[in-house]
Amino acid sequence: MATKEDFIPFKPQHTAVRNLMLLMAYVFVFSWIIDRILPGFASRFLALHSNPNDVLFTPWTLLTGFLGSNGIFDLIGHCVWLFFFGRISEDLLGKKKIYNFFFVAGAIASLCYILIVGVAYGKSYAMFTAAPAVAAIVYGTAIFKPFYEVYLFGAFKVQLRWIAVFKLFFDVVIIFNPVTFGSGLVTLIGGLVGVIGMMHSMGSIKIPLLDTLSGIQFNKKERVPKRSASVKINLKKTKTKQTKKGNAQAEIDAILDKINKAGYSSLTEKEKQTLFNNSKEI
Do 93 and 174 have their domain in common? Predict the structure, then answer.
């Protein structure tokens, strides 16, 4: 049975895919509710505008712009793609890679949207879709495991590469629509970021900047473990024992030299006893 914690995003026990799906769902619900209270609020203060001047007054839209959805069916589509492809990558690469692909691709796509649509073409449009970030995970996973097979509708097996080709076809078609040209183009850019990032993770290509950043190690202060008990060492006593042991060894060496020169019969009773005691210790 689902609990309240199951619907809290970014819980440590949740998968990255689940956290991202919850995040997109909450952004959609919030935008839907706020638009019913304040019509046009989401398109003005949550969507990313291609005009750089507008972004200066709403810089947070660089993040919220690639977390939204254009309707409930758009949200369902994002979640379906993320669920099937993201889960495969997360099982093989871990949470951190999924978060990196999603947010880095979304941020780069947002900047490209402003530079291409707003600056290069001089158009004033708005983007409010997670398509670029989701595309990064879809195409990145297809590059990572192109021959991985999944069951569609529980009926037949299809390799990931063919599903990615199917998605690519529709992503390219969207570009030819003047209304969706900007969002369609940055969706492909987001997918390209995912492909390049995955190829770098696989070692297929080298990107000096990423290699440098991934090689940075922060010096952490070593933690000195605390003693569970107080232990005192009597250095004076230890030194005394070592001195006595050295003297005894010197005495034994002298006795052995005497035996070599004059024989065992030349030893005194004390020397014989010392040699006998030493042989027992050995």
Answer: yes
Q: Are residues 161 and 268 in the same domain?
A: no
CA distance 215 to 32: 43
The CA angle 190-196-199, to the nearest 5 degrees, is 140
CB distance 95 to 20 below 8 Å? no
CA distance 136 to 114: 19
- The per-residue b/e assignment along 136-152, b for 16 or more CB within 10 angstroms, e otherwise, is bbbbbbbbbbeebeeee
> Which residues 6+ apart lie within 8 Å of 48 measured at CB?
55, 61, 62, 64, 65, 66, 110, 113, 114, 126, 127, 128
The DSSP bridge partners found for residue 157 are 151
Name the token pair of 148. Answer: 């991985």
Q: How many domains does the chain have?
A: 2
pLDDT tens for the 282 residues of the chain, in order: 567 667 777 777 888 999 999 999 999 999 999 999 999 999 999 999 999 999 999 999 999 999 999 899 999 999 999 998 998 888 888 888 899 999 999 999 999 999 999 899 888 889 999 999 999 999 999 999 899 888 876 678 889 999 999 999 999 998 888 878 888 999 999 999 999 999 988 888 887 766 665 544 445 454 555 555 554 555 555 555 556 666 777 787 887 777 766 666 677 777 777 776 776 555
